Amino acid sequence: MTDLLKQQCVPCKGDEPPLTEAQISEFLRETPNWEVVKFEGIPHLKRSFEFKDFAEALAFTNTVGELAETEGHHPLIELTWGKVTIEWWTHSIKGLHMNDFIMAAKTSNAYQN
User: pLDDT tens-digit profile of 27-41?
Assistant: First the structure.
């Protein structure tokens, strides 16, 4: 097992292959509460986070945004009252890359509830 929290995202040039099903299964063990969903046939990592109000959800959204900027890898973020849903995937390879699991782990680590 890797320590995803200690990893840094590496630039993805688009010629890397997406992770295999076996690799995805292994990394999912390291990122509890995340699920793989498909959108237009492309796998995404997805998780929702609950908060007591909009202000906490917004603060978390900003924290995730700062993480994304630091790592150079950006998610889909849906912010509603008391809930933030995050999706990670790698656009350039139309699939999942180790960067997505690194960011999923860091996103979960930032969750304070």
Answer: 999 999 999 999 999
User: Of the candidates 56, 55, 75, 57, which has an alpha carbon nearest to the alpha carbon of residue 65?
Assistant: 75
Q: Assess contact for 19 and 27: CB atoms under 8 A.
A: yes
Q: Dihedral of the CA atoms 17, 12, 101, 61 (nearest 10)?
A: -140
pLDDT band (50, 70, 90) for residue 23: very high
**What sign does the dihedral 55-9-104-38 (CA atoms) show?**
positive
Q: 50: helix, coil or strand?
A: strand
Identify the CATH assignment for 20-110 out of 3.40.50.620, 3.30.70.260, 3.30.1360.20, 3.30.1490.20.
Answer: 3.30.1360.20
Question: Does 1 score more than 70 pLDDT?
Answer: no
Calculate the average pLDDT of the chain: 94
